[in-house]
Write a structure and sequence with these properties.
The longest helix is centred in the middle third of the chain and has 21 residues, at about 270-290. This protein has 25 helices and 14 strands. It is an alpha/beta fold. The chain has helices at about 15-25, 35-40, 55-65, 70-85, 85-95, 100-105, 110-115, 115-120, 135-140, 170-185, 205-210, 220-240, 250-260, 270-290, 305-320, 325-330, 350-355, 365-375, 390-400, 420-425, 460-470, 475-490, 495, 510-525, 535-540, and strands at about 125-130, 150-155, 190-200, 245, 270, 300-305, 335-340, 340, 380, 405-410, 430-435, 440-445, 445-450, 450-455.
């Protein structure tokens, strides 16, 4: 039953059992907010403390409990328990201060939560699809109690936040991602379904762990995975025909393959590829708004050549083409490094996607040498190699550029290629810097620098809100380019003066709605939307926003 269709004040003719069921239903439970009259009518009189509290007072109690906890993983567990008891209080709490709670619900805390997921497990918040369900996946999906699912976030647990293959422990990712649709962009939560596609794991430590809750079989072969995924996609189209499939944290080659296979066939996207690409493009656009220059004139060096790098490069190339470059001219402005060195044609280990950026240059294992030869204006780290951007790298970028653009996008924090303090101090305050995690402000030479967090939560909840409202048939790369520029355009002169490349998280809902309006407008203009176009798109979207209230 949806949260928007329940009349919470209606008296019931069969007290007792229904009242108890409401107290144990996190979606409908009001807890101590039930009035004296409601308690009598529902047959729960005496089952709650006498005080009748407002929603605001309930949130005050939650905040007091959280203030007493010093460990973020404990706070994560507490909030998870709260969601199990009262979804309204949970969302009222996290939406009251997203800047505080997003890092607890998601990155970086969710990385620790995933690593210990079997130990802290309380209750399933989504569905697990296994190889044993092959031939019956549509039947299994029908077990989900909400018939109108609009967003499924599905992960295989194959590549979680730089942690690698953690199998079914990766369920914390689709849960957290979908919570941010609501916490950041007010998409109604009952439309969300987290799914872990359990394809086995190659992680021997997990398979030996008695508390591991997933399949202990080896990972499926590529062919078997493709067959299982195809049935899953077909089942979603049958059971939830209005649903957008959000692919999340699949192994890099699987992620690229699945996106290419389904992007033009169903309503879907891959956040690791398109969301990451859009948030990086947003930061680049904001940096160029600050320092001047056009994207087509930039040279971008990637450290890391997986799905994130391929996604960012692809979106950059597409936009460079809109600025007048040919495809070959645009891709020539992209250089990539991975663990085996520079991506160049003599290598025999390159994927088809990597070969696009393999230029005829001398092989090298040295990122510093590659930078000195390629002379990039922008350096982007998506390697999960913590500390890879050392002093020599930052100084080389500063020598080549009056204002170097440096992004250390890997997470969690220990995986970041450099810290904000290192980027600013080694560049003598010249760098425009962003990271995948939120670093604290840096004071250098009497000036305060505020590093941006290039986190996808600026992009995918807004794209989700636009999708929820406009009901497009497809989510194209152009939708994500529009979202990127909508984010960049919200960096005014005051924020530019502080070196900020992303909007403040203090009013994330305003940022997301503004972005969603731009994306929805594009969906209508491009003929993607199935909804009837309103005269005022912003007011139309604002009227759809979820409000946690009784």
């Amino acid at each position: 039953m949806s949260t928007t269709s329940i009349d919470r004040g209606t008296p019931y003719s069969e007290p007792g059992s229904l009242g108890l069921s409401l107290l144990h239903d996190p979606i409908r439970n009001k807890g101590t907010a039930y009035t004296v009259q409601q308690r009598r009518e529902l047959g729960i009189e005496g089952l709650l403390p006498p005080a009748v509290e407002s929603l605001e007072r309930q949130v005050d109690r939650v905040l007091q409990q959280l203030d007493g906890k010093t460990d973020d993983l404990d706070k994560y567990s507490y909030l998870t328990d709260l969601m199990d008891r009262n979804e309204t209080v949970f969302y009222k709490t996290v939406m009251s201060d997203p800047k505080r709670f997003v890092p607890i619900l998601y990155d970086p805390t969710v990385a620790d939560a995933c690593q210990t997921f079997g130990n802290i497990y309380r209750r399933a918040h989504g569905m697990y699809i296994t190889r044993d369900m092959k031939g019956r996946i549509a039947e299994v999906l029908k077990h989900w109690p909400e018939p109108d699912v609009r967003f499924i976030c599905v992960s295989t647990g194959g590549r979680i936040l730089g942690l690698g293959d953690i199998g079914a422990n990766g369920m914390g990712i689709p849960i957290g991602k979908l919570q941010l649709y609501t916490a950041c962009a007010a998409v109604p939560p009952h439309y969300m379904l987290p799914i872990l596609l359990d394809i086995g794991t190659s992680n021997e430590a997990l398979r030996a762990d008695p508390l591991y809750m997933g399949s202990r079989e080896p990972q499926l072969s590529e062919q078997a995975l493709d067959e299982l995924t195809q049935e899953f996609i077909d089942a979603v189209q049958e059971v939830f025909p209005a649903c957008c499939v959000h692919f999340e944290d699949w192994k890099g080659t699987d992620a690229i393959r699945m996106l290419e296979r389904y992007r033009d066939k169903i309503l879907c996207y891959n956040d690791d590829i398109q969301g990451t690409a859009a948030i990086a493009l947003a930061g680049i656009a904001a940096a160029l708004n600050t320092k001047g220059g056009k994207l087509k004139d930039q040279r971008i060096q990637f450290f890391g050549a997986g799905s994130a790098a391929i996604g960012i490069a692809g979106l950059v190339v597409k936009e460079m083409q809109t600025q007048g470059l040919t495809f070959d001219e645009a891709r020539s402005r992209i250089s990539m490094f991975d663990i085996n060195g520079l991506i160049e044609p003599s290598r025999t280990d390159l994927s088809e996607a990597q070969k696009v950026y393999a230029h005829s240059v001398a092989p090298t294992q040295s990122l510093l040498a590659g930078i000195q030869d390629f002379k990039p204006t922008i350096l982007i780290g998506v390697s999960t190699h913590g500390g890879a951007f050392d002093k020599h790298i930052i100084e080389a970028m500063t020598h080549l550029n009056e204002v170097p653009i440096i992004f250390a996008l890997s997470n969690p924090t220990r995986k970041a290629e450099c810290t904000a303090e290192q980027a600013y101090s080694w560049s003598k305050g010249k760098a425009l810097f962003a990271a995948g995690v939120q670093f604290p402000d840096v004071v250098l030479g009497g000036k305060t620098y505020r590093p941006g967090q290039a986190n996808n939560f600026y992009i995918y909840p807004a794209a989700g809100l636009a999708t929820y409202a406009a009901r497009p048939t497809r989510l194209t790369d152009e939708c994500f380019i529009v979202a990127a520029h909508a984010i960049a355009d919200q960096i005014g002169l005051a924020l530019q003066a502080k070196g900020m490349l992303y909007p403040s998280q203090d009013d994330i809902l305003e940022t997301e709605v503004t972005t969603a309006v731009r994306v929805a407008q594009y969906m209508f203009d491009a003929g993607l939307a199935q909804a009837t176009r309103p005269s005022d798109i912003r007011s139309w979207i604002e009227n759809m926003l979820y409000k946690p209230q009784y």
